[in-house]
């Protein structure tokens, strides 16, 4: 949860600092005309446009990403080489570990504190795996050849590009030490300034897009795992399950990104906050990967210890350095993370208590038979779809409904909607029905994928369920020799008659009740959960059911 909160913070800070840093290049040639406030306003405008385009999906614009990043990867090292030759050809002496040791011996504590500034040189990798949902299984399950090609591409393009770019900036700063506040744009030759400015701005937008998409992905995954309040999730691709867009999250991110720029317009404060987020995400990832190595991969203890010690110590040193920047903007991600963590924990706690209550008080077929055998309970005409989210048993709302309404429809289909991680479920696999052991009672599971639309089907889904149920009953009579065909046809006729008499869809709506003897922890957390629950999206698709056919049954779950 903490890692996800920090990654969402990354999704807020990365667009802000990337676009702000790129647009700030306007001030170098026009410092007397372009003010800091104008740069902030232009950066906010670029971000607003970027967020407004999110609803069209990443796949619509992703064809431009490779050329942009290719131009960035090739152009900046060429500028770096020019700067090295012009300013300080001996800059590559800095690659020797001797100078690192001497630097820390000479500067001591100040050398350690300087790591908080250099951490921004390794950003970007923390978001790499959050975007894996944008690729299909074949792309991720790379073969030996593709792994080799990835290694070659990194070794001979990305890594040299970064080294030459940073070395060129450093060579310029050695000769012009007072230009450290704007070292990137000042080391670019005037003749190619504007092409590099355009490439840098486009690259910043691409970097921002990757973190925005990553934020959508992790929130969608958290919603599926019941760790985050339900929000609207739109799949913008019919082939890749991870390409998603959430309107609510998109506009919240937009407001927060613009607020960060306008309130903390100084790139230094945003950079300090960014460094805290990146280093903590990496440290948390190291801890989690260590747990995976121990519990899932069963990696030998020596290798686990070797991996953990190297990376935890290295990242821990960076974390300790950036934490000194808390008072200089580093508190921003902690404030965001505390709010998000409270939302996630409150939601998760409420959902866990709800599941515990339902599993403890679920209605099994034996209990249902006892309830229906009560002489005071009537079987009324019509067809009822009673929705339940419990696979092994029935929701306790059913018992509450029967006890208070003293009735149940002659034909009742207990329906569960099941989400599958596939684009579309085949029509012959979408609906699975079964006959329960009691007269007029049936079970139904409606399966759907992320590209399936269930919001405009209404009577169509009812007709599909009826067709599947009738076919199921007739097929059972063919396989079971003891079945009476006339009895089966009579049962089918009763279902058809119930459908003609009227269809109703019953859904539960639950709330927690904390009694006088309940603890303050439950009172606070469950009250907060109720606020979240009442303002989030429904767990069930609308199915296009007409309003006059919907019934909501309220029930208090005693905590």
From TrEMBL:
<feature type="domain" description="K+ potassium transporter C-terminal">
    <location>
        <begin position="381"/>
        <end position="557"/>
    </location>
</feature>
<keyword id="KW-0472">Membrane</keyword>
<feature type="transmembrane region" description="Helical">
    <location>
        <begin position="192"/>
        <end position="212"/>
    </location>
</feature>
<dbReference type="Pfam" id="PF02705">
    <property type="entry name" value="K_trans"/>
</dbReference>
<feature type="transmembrane region" description="Helical">
    <location>
        <begin position="330"/>
        <end position="349"/>
    </location>
</feature>
<feature type="transmembrane region" description="Helical">
    <location>
        <begin position="63"/>
        <end position="85"/>
    </location>
</feature>
<keyword id="KW-0406">Ion transport</keyword>
<feature type="transmembrane region" description="Helical">
    <location>
        <begin position="147"/>
        <end position="172"/>
    </location>
</feature>
<comment type="similarity">
    <text>Belongs to the HAK/KUP transporter (TC 2.A.72.3) family.</text>
</comment>
<protein>
    <recommendedName>
        <fullName>Potassium transporter</fullName>
    </recommendedName>
</protein>
<keyword id="KW-1133">Transmembrane helix</keyword>
<comment type="function">
    <text>Potassium transporter.</text>
</comment>
<dbReference type="Pfam" id="PF22776">
    <property type="entry name" value="K_trans_C"/>
</dbReference>
<feature type="domain" description="K+ potassium transporter integral membrane">
    <location>
        <begin position="1"/>
        <end position="367"/>
    </location>
</feature>
<feature type="transmembrane region" description="Helical">
    <location>
        <begin position="249"/>
        <end position="267"/>
    </location>
</feature>
<keyword id="KW-0633">Potassium transport</keyword>
<feature type="transmembrane region" description="Helical">
    <location>
        <begin position="38"/>
        <end position="57"/>
    </location>
</feature>
<feature type="transmembrane region" description="Helical">
    <location>
        <begin position="301"/>
        <end position="324"/>
    </location>
</feature>
<dbReference type="InterPro" id="IPR053951">
    <property type="entry name" value="K_trans_N"/>
</dbReference>
<dbReference type="InterPro" id="IPR053952">
    <property type="entry name" value="K_trans_C"/>
</dbReference>
<dbReference type="GO" id="GO:0005886">
    <property type="term" value="C:plasma membrane"/>
</dbReference>
<keyword id="KW-0812">Transmembrane</keyword>
<dbReference type="InterPro" id="IPR003855">
    <property type="entry name" value="K+_transporter"/>
</dbReference>
<feature type="transmembrane region" description="Helical">
    <location>
        <begin position="273"/>
        <end position="294"/>
    </location>
</feature>
<keyword id="KW-0813">Transport</keyword>
<keyword id="KW-0630">Potassium</keyword>
<dbReference type="GO" id="GO:0015079">
    <property type="term" value="F:potassium ion transmembrane transporter activity"/>
</dbReference>
């Amino acid at each position: 949860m903490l890692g996800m909160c920090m990654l969402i913070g990354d999704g807020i800070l990365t667009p802000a600092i990337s676009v702000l840093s790129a647009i700030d290049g306007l001030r170098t040639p026009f410092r007397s005309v372009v003010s800091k406030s104008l740069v902030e306003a232009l950066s906010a405008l670029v971000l607003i446009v970027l967020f407004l385009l999110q609803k069209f999906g990443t796949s619509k614009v992703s064809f431009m990403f490779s050329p942009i990043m290719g131009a960035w990867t090739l152009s900046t090292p060429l500028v770096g080489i020019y700067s090295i030759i012009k300013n300080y050809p001996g800059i590559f002496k800095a690659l020797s570990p001797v100078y690192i040791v001497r630097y820390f011996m000479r500067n001591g504590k100040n050398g350690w504190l300087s790591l908080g500034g250099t951490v921004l040189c390794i950003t970007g990798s923390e978001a790499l795996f959050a975007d894996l949902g944008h690729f299909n299984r074949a792309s991720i399950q790379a073969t030996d050849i593709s792994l080799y090609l990835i290694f070659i591409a990194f070794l001979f393009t990305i890594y040299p590009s970064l080294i030459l770019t940073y070395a060129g900036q450093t060579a310029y700063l050695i000769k012009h030490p007072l230009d450290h506040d704007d070292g990137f744009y000042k080391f670019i030759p005037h003749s190619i300034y504007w092409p590099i400015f355009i490439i840098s701005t486009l690259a910043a937008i691409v970097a921002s897009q990757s973190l925005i998409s990553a934020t959508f992905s992790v929130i969608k995954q958290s919603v599926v795992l019941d760790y985050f309040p339900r929000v609207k999730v739109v799949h913008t691709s019919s082939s890749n399950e991870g390409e998603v867009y959430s309107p609510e999250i998109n506009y919240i991110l937009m407001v927060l990104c613009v607020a960060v720029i306008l309130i903390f317009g100084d790139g230094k404060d945003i950079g300090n906050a960014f460094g805290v987020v990146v280093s903590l995400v990496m440290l948390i990832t190291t801890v989690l990967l260590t747990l995976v190595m121990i519990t899932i991969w069963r990696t030998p203890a020596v290798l686990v210890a070797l991996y953990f010690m190297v990376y935890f110590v290295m990242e821990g040193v960076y974390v300790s350095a950036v934490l000194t920047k808390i008072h200089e903007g580093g508190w921003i991600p902690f404030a965001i993370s505390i709010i998000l963590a409270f939302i996630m924990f409150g939601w998760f706690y409420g959902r866990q208590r709800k599941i515990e209550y339902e599993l403890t008080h679920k209605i099994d077929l034996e209990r249902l038979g006892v309830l229906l055998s009560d002489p005071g309970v009537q079987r009324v005409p019509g067809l009822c779809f009673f929705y339940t989210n419990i696979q092994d048993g029935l929701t306790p709302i059913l018992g509450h409904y029967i006890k208070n309404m003293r009735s149940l429809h002659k034909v009742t289909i207990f329906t569960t909607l099941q989400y599958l991680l596939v684009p579309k479920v085949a029509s012959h696999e979408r609906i699975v029905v079964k006959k329960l052991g009691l007269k007029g009672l049936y079970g139904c599971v409606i399966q759907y994928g992320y590209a399936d639309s269930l919001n405009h089907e209404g009577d169509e889904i009812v007709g599909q369920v009826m067709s599947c149920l009738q076919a199921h009953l007739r097929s059972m009579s063919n396989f079971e020799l003891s079945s009476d065909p006339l009895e089966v046809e009579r049962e089918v006729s009763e279902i058809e008659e119930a459908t003609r008499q009227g269809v109703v869809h019953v859904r539960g709506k639950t709330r927690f009740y904390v009694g006088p003897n309940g603890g303050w922890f439950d009172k606070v957390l469950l009250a907060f959960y109720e606020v979240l629950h009442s303002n989030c999206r429904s767990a069930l698709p609308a199915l296009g059911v007409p309003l006059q056919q919907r019934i909501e049954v309220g029930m208090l779950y005693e905590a």
